[in-house]
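Incident log, structure service

09:12 report received: a user says their structure output differs between two submissions of the same chain.
09:20 pulled the input from the user's history:
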Amino acid sequence: MTGFRLSVVLLAVMVLGSSCAGHDGRQMVANGVGFTPEQTVGVVEEAPAHSVAADRARVEGRNTIGSVVTEMISGSVGADASYEISTPQLDGVWEDDPLNVALRKPVLSEIARFADDLVVDEEVPVGEGLLTGEAMVHLLDDRVLSVVYDFEVVSGGAARPVEVVWSVLLDLDSSAPVGIGDLFLAGSPWPEMVAFLARQDLKTRLGEGALWGEGVGDGTGLEAAEENFRLFGVTTTGLVLRFERYQVGPGTYGAPEATIPWSSLARLVDPFGPVGHLLP
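09:34 re-ran on a clean worker, output below:
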């Protein structure tokens, strides 16, 4: 089992590494809006740039991060399973830079878990399977990079795909990951406010009675606890929350999303923290 999983991860790293080296077929992702423009020429020069140390710059004389490129990686697991995933990387730093390593981590982790789930009795890989995924860049500015990953797993005999969500918020100065609690003033009642506003937005999106705790199931997935809001992204206008399948409602809703404007959280967000510059 250990050798099988390790080989899958090594394969993913090799495929990704070769892809990063030449950036073949890459697509530019515009900062802050999360779409791929038709033309790639000039995007780096036009986009907001974040300076990095000269020893981190991938291209001599160009020590800035100006955009995100998406790299497609694919491979097989066992005899009948495969994966095809788009992976974001920062254009302007080396592929082994801590920022790019952090951006690859969710993809490699999900590939490894996909391989584990295809094993029976910890020995024999069986059945057909397909893992696909893509990343949404919610924001890249001169302070943070916010990415949310959506994966879908299809296995033999399954009635529908299984949705899996990961998220990464990186501080571009320190290369450190940022948790949702780091966005707010210490000791503030932000979990209570976020839980309340998220529930209101989800009810608007999904309808009355759709959420656990409204006559069916329980409300633990929307209780005022930091771990319930660990999947998130940030944009120039607000906080984007994502929830795992079954966390807030029936599986038919997949992995739903809720958005909260910064204006509704203005008194709770740390003005000197990672997203303080986004406050209205």
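09:41 both user submissions now match this output. Likely a transient worker issue. Closing.
09:42 reviewer note: Residues 2-22 form the longest helix (21 residues). The helical segments are 2-22, 43-46, 98-117, 190-206.
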